[in-house]
Design brief:
The protein is mostly beta strands. The protein is built from no helices and 15 strands. The termini are far apart.
């Protein structure tokens, strides 16, 4: 016999019975409890490396909630203090020995982001507390045109056209 619709984390007593012309007879009651499952717990969110347009993050799965983890990773946003995997950017990581790591890409220069780690089991999504990271601000100049004038044995005047704006260099 299969018992259905049992509630997680509850204690149950069950016994068998038989009805005959001599009456109803019961077995000795058996006691059991169902397992309580819950959301996974993720902690230890830290930044490994932060660059101008990407960041490498690491986190630790401290409890799987009594179930298999189907996905883990990181989600982030520049405006929401509680980014989630359904409304914000995310990257999926690989869980190994309770630790996972991934690179957040496509970040804007000189921008602050709220980042959370997450893990999913059949109960739902468990999130870590958030951390705030800030990307670097180094600009990558691109020389698009260069002209030189007034050459002498010791000097040369140069005008560089760079992105985002030109600048005059003499020397």
């Amino acid at each position: 016999v299969e018992l259905k619709a049992l509630i997680e984390g509850r204690q149950y007593y069950v016994c068998a019975y038989a009805i005959s012309r001599d009456g109803t007879f019961y077995s000795v009651p058996a006691e059991f409890s169902t397992v309580q499952h819950y959301l996974p717990t993720v902690e230890g969110l830290t930044e490994i490396e932060i660059n101008d347009d990407n960041a490498t993050m690491e986190a630790r799965l401290t409890d799987n909630g009594g179930m298999n983890i189907t996905e883990c990773g990181f989600c982030w946003d520049s405006s929401s203090a509680e980014p989630d995997i359904t409304r914000h950017k995310k990257v999926i990581a690989t869980l190994k020995d309770g630790v996972f790591q991934a690179q957040l890409t496509g970040l804007a220069y000189n921008t602050s982001y709220h980042v959370r780690a997450y893990a999913i089991n059949d109960k739902g999504v468990g999130y870590s507390a958030y951390v705030i990271i800030k990307t670097g601000s180094s600009a990558k100049a691109t020389i698009t045109e260069m002209t030189a004038g007034n050459p002498t044995p010791s000097t040369l005047d140069c005008l560089l056209y760079t992105f985002p704006s030109p600048r005059d260099i003499s020397g």
